[in-house]
């Protein structure tokens, strides 16, 4: 089965390793690197889709955490996915909610299974695992999904950076869990 999203390398700088390429998705082919306007809640503030198109936007970034809270993945899926919900015919990337793991640090508890935190809207206790994030993103229907990650704060102790960045067991465990739920789906992993 061929992946729904492909990456084509056009050039890689021999000194820095910087890459120029393109992403080929069901909603078009887009150059990389690229600027992605942020439509956190399925809308880029103060801009209509036609204006984004005119200015050359190719991919919009939407946030899984915020769309999970409202309007909810079920409603977006029922509407035909984010593309129809947003009236956007080009690419969409969904962030997993990993930044909220960082920004809601005062209300969160991280374990190997996922993160528990308070909903910033109503204070309800919520749990987000890598599997739950991918399930929500599947319902949203973007071109590109990001897996749940943890963004360490700037200048955090080396021990946390080692845990987040260098322990292969944690990453491998999550990768194996995600692979189990993605079997049969077409996807591409960019490293």
UniProtKB/TrEMBL annotation:
UniProt-recorded Gene Ontology molecular function terms: transferase activity
GO cellular component entries: cytosol
One GO-annotated biological process of the protein: tRNA queuosine(34) biosynthetic process
InterPro entries to which the protein is assigned, alphabetical: ArchSynthase1/Queuine_TRR, TGT-like_sf, tRNA_ribo_trans-like
Keyword line: Queuosine biosynthesis, Transferase, tRNA processing
SUPFAM superfamilies from the UniProt entry: tRNA-guanine transglycosylase (SSF51713)
Protein name (Swiss-Prot/TrEMBL): Queuine tRNA-ribosyltransferase
Organism this protein belongs to: Lacticaseibacillus paracasei subsp. paracasei Lpp71
